[in-house]
Amino acid sequence: MLEKKSTRVRKEEIVRAALEVVGTSGVRALTISAIAGSAGMSEANIYRHFGGKEQIFAALADYIGDAVMGKAATIAAGSRSPLEKLETIYFSHIAIIAEHPGIPRFVFSDDIHLGHRNIAEKLSLRIGNYIETITGIIAAGIAEGELKPEVSPRETALSLLGMIQLTALRWTIGNASFELRSEAEKLWRNFVTLVS
After folding, report:
1. Dihedral of the CA atoms 82, 88, 90, 92 (nearest 10)?
2. How many domains are contained in the chain?
3. Does residue 158 fall inside a structural domain?
């Protein structure tokens, strides 16, 4: 007899399946039927865990926030040097995009920005917290002499995030036509040259 999965595990499977649909076909293709097909479960099972697409969108926003922004906060609280923290955050963000192409498709989607303002606001708040986390690490790097004193913490944080977002956008639009990690490494080396 198969072991019954917990509600938390089932919900995460559904969210990952939704992310898979978005990564393959975009936000507009995200139907309960498509999620059920991707998750290998019935539509009724999806509805047992979520009241509809709006709840799934909210769960996607939370999943992305935890996976990217939550991880950054954990890294920031660690004992590494500021530059090592920035590098770890940067490459962990790139790795999660490579694993889940649906993340940039969801975050950059006008369907979300214009059609689901509450979800867009949730994403915006998490991005704001992410920027504050990176800004704090950069400020610490300046204070410790690891980064140039003339570097502006907030603007440098935005530049780092911009590197990630533009690379993710180019990679997504180009249908993964270049190796994401390799491109990210070149940009990281250039960033370090500019700030340290």
Report:
1. -160
2. 1
3. yes
Q: Which residue has the tokens 């939550």?
A: 70
Any domain includes 75: yes
Instruction: State in Å, rounded, how far the first CA of the chain is from the last one.
Output: 58
Q: Which of 93, 51, 98, 95 is nearest to 68 (CA)?
A: 93
- CATH number of the domain to which 82 belongs: 1.10.357.10
- Distance CA(133)–CA(86), nearest Å, equals 10
- Cα dihedral value 24, 32, 5, 103, nearest 10: 30
Q: Does residue 38 lie in a domain region?
A: no
Most confident of 5-9, 68-72, 86-90: 86-90
Both tokens of 89, joined, read 């955050």
Residue 68, pLDDT score: 87
d(CA 188, CA 24): 28
Q: Is the pTM of this model over 0.85?
A: yes
Q: Do the domain assignments include residue 11?
A: no
Helix 53-64 and helix 7-25, axial crossing angle in degrees, nearest 10? 90
